[in-house]
Amino acid sequence: MKFGFRSTSQRRPGGWFPASFLCFTRSVLGGALLAGSVLMFTGAPVLAQNTTADVLGTVTDESGAVIPNAKVELTNLETHETRTITSGDSGEYVFTLLKPSRYSLSVTAAGFKIFRIDSFSISAGDRAREDSHMVVGSQGEIVNVDALPPELHTDTSSLITTVTEKATQELPLNGRNFINLVQVTPGATEGLNNGLASGNRPDDRRQTSSVSMNGQADMMNNQTIDGIDNNERVIGSIGVRPSVDAIQEVSVQANVFTAEVGRAAGAIVNVITKSGGNTFHGTAYEFFRNDVLNANPFKFGASIPKPKYRQNQFGGSLGGRIIKDRTFFFVDYEGLNIVKNQNPTTTTVPTLFERQNPGNFTDNPAINKVVPSASFDKIGQQYLNLFPLPTNSALSGNYVGARGDNQFAKVGDVRVDHRFSNNDSAYVRYTYNRVDTKIGTLFPAVSSAAGVIEPGGNLGSYPGPALTRAHQAHINYIHTFTPNLLLELKAGYTLLDNAQYPLNFGKAINSAMGQANINVDGRTAELSAVTVNQGTAPTLGNRPPIIYHENTWQYEGIVNYILSKQTIKIGGGVIRRQDSTTQTDTANGNWSFTDFSTLLTGDYLSGGRNWILYVPHNRTWEPHVFVQDDIHLRPNLTLNVGVRYDLYTPYTEINNILSNFDINQGRILVAGQNADGHGGVQTDYSNFAPRFGFAYTPMDRTVIRGGFGLTFAPENTTSGSALVNQPFTATWGAYTPAQAVAQATTLGFQNPGQYAKFAGGLPTPSPNSYTNPSGSITAALDPNFRSTYIEQFNLTAEREFSGFVGTLSYVGELGRHNAYYLSDYNTVPVALSALSFTPAARGDTTTNSPATATDFNTRRRFNATVPNVTSIPLYRSNGASSYHAMQAVLKRRYKKGLDLQVAYTWARLLDNSESISNNGGNGFGSSADLIPTLEYGNGNLDVRHRVTGTFNYALPFGQNQHGVKGVLVKGWQANGVIVWNTGMPFSVTNVTNRSGTRPTAGNADRSNMIGNGKVSHSTIFKWFDTSDFAFQPAGTVSNQRRNQLFGPGLQRVDLSLFKNFDLTERVKLEFRTEAFNVMNTAQFVNPNSSLSLSGGAPVATFGTITSTANAYNPRLIQFAARVKF
User: Fold this and answer.
1) Closest C-alpha to 570, from 263, 259, 225, 262
2) What gap in Å lies between CA 887 and CA 883, rounded to an integer?
3) What string of H, E and C letters represents the secondary structure of 986-1007?
4) Are 621 and 574 spatial neighbours (Cβ–Cβ below 8 Å)?
5) For residue 795, what are the contacts with CB-CB under 8 A and spacing of at least 6?
6) CA angle 1057, 1061, 1067 (to 5 degrees)
């Protein structure tokens, strides 16, 4: 029995079915037959993943001489399936395509006693060595050998960690999310605080699936279930998530992948699901949590009551046989109900005096005026009435409220395995997820003449309902031609619907108010967003929905051929991805006002919309082939050699709703009109990925291994691949009412004067011209965009001693052709000839004159070809990264009830672009962001030091006690997860753009450094030395490199205590107490690093920390009861 984490190693001696799913069931057999035809007749098989394992060994006598022609028999103890093979001339044998399970092994040879191992377990990706040392004697005699737990990697160069079933079942998991255990494997971190897959974004409300492996972005992993693609490719999160009770184990490949797998720059996370056996087994459980035992959240000195919290997680599983030794099943279900309040928020609303005296703002010295009723704007007045009454008498910060959120999730899995004959077996699996989330509103609903309106007040939280539905179906088939030649075929289909709906969705509220052309279709039928720039006043209204739909079809297979000293795998396959995405933040209009008085009069500061008129339906192909050869060159030396080829076709759109800005020609290319279906983006055919590694055993209990390989990764739709520009967009924007009237007059609109007021609404949306475009470009993709690839390498030493195994690895990953995002490529070009190094200023400076508002646009890069175009966000593939680490792991083999693992990573990450997962880009660091080499610095995911630990300990006391005393004192177990790491880096930026390369304050650049910014002891009140930063002279480039300072780290201890009761010989009852963040340690975000002056000095919040991380929770305690048999 093994506890906790186990490194994958070699052994030494000693209403759920949518129409598209039904379509899948009709086509999957045809796909499998097609794949089989390819394999049998063309010699180009389709791909397999590391979902199975190998058992290999050498049969020798007591002197070490090899024994050929020995009979080797391997039996699955769960299903009684038996395979038999004969050792070769060199005594070698290999069993391949084995299901992770428990096995027994026996070896017989003439003149020798029978060699037998009664029970051992293997995991996905294992090449488990079970050498057989035969003893001379009668075949009627048996030599039983206890298989030692697999610890040393004697036959593979890959860095793989297996999260065992025991770890997923018994370590404390907040929300029973298996990803939390992947995050504490060697080399992994939790990723960015606000990453798209973090569970804190409207793009995906489910629990986090964020994992950063070896410094790579969380969106660059390859998630699979039983080897079937499980990636959501719009934002890079997960497809479906099986219940923890359905997971046999999780295999995490981190470096130097085998050729069988790829499509990742980070980790390959493969979930292996459970199957049934001849013995029935199952579980039933409930986990309960509320706020009574929770600790108070960190308050930053404020008096904040403990928010309401209720959570119930419940479910069960059952597995067993349908036909003994032939057909088996496994089913499970889990539900999760969460009802909670957020911490109170303080904001600003009109005062009670202003509400009781409409138009009178004399109580506020900053406004101090009376607006006559004749000047009331009919729409502005209705918006003003949506604000609630204040909760105190202050002029600012006079409303305190807390929103309530809830989430209800369901998970179900079904798997059926069947053995048709000794040579043919198959299984099918179906997984279903549904998550209903409601993000509450800060302000209460208001009854008005326009109907019942939810005003929101927390626009940035995207309040409203969200629904995620995910389905995955999978079929797998294995045929044995001979013991040395096997075929595996598989096919899979994943459907994911993810929708975040706004408050008031489906209600044409602005139309009911009397405002024209706001609610023009179903996507814009809600309340237009209005921001009042007075104090801490929030934004009222809604953003349009975020809706995306994905289909992924996959057909794969593999041929395994075993020679005397070689295991050869040849495979390939294809993935077809389809997605449609709807997201335009301002399609329903967006307005800003100076204060409440200008809202009442309708005199806006700015107003407009940017709308994607159509819903694109994108398509792409991902074919791939590979060859892997594992060569047992000598008894103590194995070579792993392979090559893989991946092809990622640029996205197309079924109706040619795709346009790209060509940076080479300075014009817009429209699919099917003046460009091909890819919008001019070329296909990269160069994705050949060689892999080479070795494993050498110089002496007993010691292994030296290492390798090198390339891996190519696809981009997500978010990464600029979904190209929807003019003529598929409609844009209207005005920074002043006068500008709006002038623009309407130029365009020949009737009654252009109406647009001078809020009540005038917006013009009817019409497509923007692509031959004479204006406004901003949505996204541009470099026509020569290349696939990101990572050069992976490691050198590892492993040593077993006194029940422990120590592993020390040097791990390196070099990123090439990384996605590099520029928020605006249409800027004033940098005059490199003017750059000079000034030691006193500690960096680059220029003599460029500062840009002025009147001539900035005329000096833009593409002014000659598209003079009316402003910003052009550009995605290129000229990014680079460099990750180097020492990774040390110490494991204690399960002994005397204790199993533990401690891992330490010392790493450095350098790159020149931030993770797109955080909607980053390169952070507008300076005018030099157009020159990637000048942006090279500490990466956003540069975590220098990280320690993780896990343990399971069956407490030893009371084992011999009986009766009441035995019931009380024995059966206790303690488990824990410990995480500590240093913080992530950040830059200090100006509140405005000082270099003159950006037109607005929102595109701030970095400040000048006049010191190192460090303090002797960082606190939340002064994290860095604010006096070491200053505005650089206007028109010059900052001397500050990217990410020179580091924020607060992470410390977390999660513990659990079990009490087990034996109800019968097979039925056990388990009571649990689990505590998360036991030490109640606050987890902070990086400090306020935006340099802004007030009275000639930095504002008081500069350099301070004022909020906690999104994933932070105070100490949480939950109880559980679990029955298992």
Assistant:
1) 259
2) 12
3) ECCEECCCCCCCCCCHHHCCEC
4) yes
5) 704, 705, 706, 809, 810
6) 120
Reading the block at residue 966, the tokens are: 């035995």
Residue 738, classed as helix, strand or coil, is helix
For 1024-1078, write each residue's pLDDT tens digit. 999 999 988 877 778 888 899 999 999 999 999 999 999 998 999 999 999 999 9
> What pairs with residue 977 in β-bridges?
950, 1054
Cα 499 from Cα 545, distance rounded (Å): 7
* pLDDT for res 1000: 53
Query: Three-state secondary structure along 845-867?
Result: ECCCCCCCCCCCHHHCCCCCCCC
DSSP H or E stretch at residue 722:
none
3-state SS of 192-244 is: CCCCCCCCCECCECCCCCCCEECCCCHHHCEEEECCEECECCCCCCECCCCCH
CB 261 within 8 A of CB 268: yes
CA distance 622 to 687: 12
Compute the distance between CA of residue 148 and CA of residue 166 in angstroms, rounded to an integer: 18
Largest CA distance in the chain: 111
Q: How far apart are CA 189 and CA 194, in angstroms?
A: 14
Contact 922, 820 (CB under 8 A): yes
Contacts for 125 with CB less than 8 Å, ≥ 6 apart: 8, 50, 53, 156, 158, 160, 162, 251, 253, 258, 270
Q: What is the mean pLDDT of the chain?
A: 87
Nearest Cα neighbor of 405 from 302, 307, 313, 297 is 307
**Residue 802 and residue 893: Cα distance in Å, rounded?**
9
Query: Alpha-carbon distance 848 to 832, whole Å?
Result: 10
Sign of the four-CA dihedral 708, 709, 710, 715: negative
Q: Residue 447: is it exposed, middle or buried by C-beta count within 10 angstroms (0-12/13-18/19+)?
A: exposed
Helix or strand holding residue 618 (H, E): strand 617-634
Sign of CA dihedral 291, 1047, 463, 221: negative
Residue 52: both structure tokens together: 């199975």
Neighbours of 366 (CB within 10 A): 11
Which pLDDT value is given to residue 147? 60
Which amino acid would we find at residue 339? Answer: V
Alpha-carbon distance of 1098 to 49, in angstroms, equals 55
> Is there a contact between 39 and 557 (Cβ–Cβ < 8 Å)?
yes
- Count the residues in the chain: 1125
Are 299 and 277 in contact by the 8 Å Cβ rule? The answer is no
623 C-beta neighbours (distance < 10 Å), count: 16
d(CA 556, CA 624): 9
How wide is the angle at C-alpha 655 spanned by C-alphas 652 and 661, nearest 5°?
55
First to last CA, the chain: 17
Whether pTM > 0.85 for this model: the answer is: yes
Over range 181-190, report the average pLDDT. 96
Residue 814: Cβ within 10 Å count: 15
What gap in Å lies between CA 386 and CA 533, rounded to an integer?
16
What is the mean pLDDT of the segment spanning 657-674? 94
Looking at the DSSP bridge assignments, the partners of residue 223 are 269
Structure tokens at 176: 């029973």
Which residue type does 1068 have?
K
The token pair at 360 is: 């009178």
Give one DSSP letter per residue of 759-786, joined into a string. Answer: GG--PPP-PPPSSS--B--S-EE-TT--
Q: Where are the alpha helices (DSSP H) in 433-578?
A: 509-513
Assign 1071 to helix, strand or coil: strand
pLDDT band for 719, please (50, 70, 90 cuts): low
Give phi and psi for 34, each to the nearest 5.
-60, -45
CA angle 536, 540, 543 (to 5 degrees): 125
Give burial (CB, 10 Å; 0-12/13-18/19+) of 849: exposed
